[in-house]
Each structure stands twice: as C-alpha cells, then as structure tokens.
C-alpha cells in the first residue's frame, strides 16, 4: 500500500487503520452503539441491510456519470451483444441470483469454468485475452461491477460479505480443498453473499479462489459494522492505488 499511503497520506491511512481495527477507539465504540452484533447474527441482521442500502445509494450517485459513459462506450464495441452481462451466482444452497456487470468479454467466452479459472490465475483482469478492446480499459480500472450497486440496493446482494460465486466454483473448491471446504461452505451460506469482501480488500492474490477461503471464514466469524467499513476503506485504497498506477502508465511514467 505504499503508493496509496503516499497518494493519500501515510498518517491518515495509519490512523484510519487503527480507528477501524482496534476496539478501544472512539470510532469503534461509536459503531458498537449503532450496531453491536457480530458474526452470523450481524450478517443476517436488518441493521446491516439498512446500512448496506444507505452506503450503496451514496456510492451509486457519483458512479452514475462514469456508468453512463461506460454504457455509451459499450455500444461501439462490435460484436459484443448486450452491453450488460448477467451471470447466475449461488446465493443460497438452493437458490441462484443473477448479478449484473458491464460486458467486457465477447459473448460465450466464459462458458468453460475451467478455462475461466486458468485465465484468472494466469492473467491480470485487464490482460485477459478474452477481453474486448473496450473491456480491457473497463477491467483495468475495475469499473465493470458498478451495476452491482443496484443489485445491493434491490437486496440481491450484501454490500460487504463473502464475495458471491458461481456454482461451478464450489465444485472446484470441494475437489481441490476438501479439508476446508465444508467449513467455508457453511460460512458462505450463513449470510447473504456480497459485492465487496475482506478478501478483495487485502489479499494481493484476490482472484485466486483457493487463497480466499481463510479470509472468507475469518470475515464470517468476525463480521461487524466496523469490519465492513474497514473492508470498504481498504478496497478504496486498493482501487486508488491501481488507478494511480494505470494513469502513470498511460502518461508514459510507469511505476517501477
């Protein structure tokens, strides 16, 4: 996070970390008064649902302008089909839900889950050879998932929880990580899967579905309003860092 610390201010990032991670700060004590639930009880609470919706609404308003630009830009990509991409994900043991993204890959390019897993492990999202030209730019700045804020507002997703996954990934995890799968699956289904996750906030290899499991379990057991805000804060730092890298690169001054 050095680039982020330099961009925003090292003192600020350290103080915010302390405020959100330690339980003896004035902020932590204030958050407990708002919602003192933890773990599964917190994840399924009505208070979390209200907080998720409020924050998602605040995020959706400034996201509307780049969203319109991306929607317009997608129409110039041929052949691309519908500008939105909807994919079924596993919400409960017996229920799937469709999440919405801006389309960044050619239609049908992710039909093979094993190929998707291989590409995810081998390439950064923006360098995936399945990307369209426009999709490469969108994924470089992680803007393809902006429409999922609407899914949060509609109650289809949590804003922060274990990241929602396609059913095919469950089979892959069970086959490759049988020792931890049962515990992870139980935690996944004990809440409402989310748009953002602790894994995506702090794991450098966040796209690796095997390396996310212990962070998912940690979140499920320690979930709280403070941990959700910490996750959103760390996610924003990571995205600012990535945007700074891309802007410098495009300006001809790549970070070494």
Mean pLDDT: 81
* Total strands: 4
Largest sheet features = 2 strands, antiparallel
Number of helices: 13
Number of individual domains: 1
Tell the overall outline. Answer: globular
Pattern of helices and strands: HHHHHEEHHHEHHEHHH
Residue runs with pLDDT of under 50 for 5 or more positions: 1-9
Structural class, judged by helices and strands?
mainly alpha
SS strand fraction? 5-15%
Radius of gyration: 18 Å
Strand order of the largest sheet: 1-2
Question: Distance N terminus to C terminus?
Answer: 14 Å
Helix content: 55-70%
Walk me through the structure.
The protein has 256 residues and is mostly helical. The protein has one domain. The chain has helices spanning 2-8, 10-21, 26-34, 39-43, 46-74, 113-122, 133-140, 148-153, 167-176, 178-189, 198-202, 213-222, 225-250; strands at 84-90, 96-102, 158-160, 194-196. The strands form two sheets. It has a two-stranded antiparallel sheet. The radius of gyration is 18 Å and the shape is globular.
SSE layout and pairing:
Blueprint: H1 2-8, H2 10-21, H3 26-34, H4 39-43, H5 46-74, E1 84-90, E2 96-102, H6 113-122, H7 133-140, H8 148-153, E3 158-160, H9 167-176, H10 178-189, E4 194-196, H11 198-202, H12 213-222, H13 225-250
Parallel strand pairs: 3-4
Antiparallel strand pairs: 1-2
Helix pairs in contact: 1-2, 1-13, 2-13, 9-10, 10-12
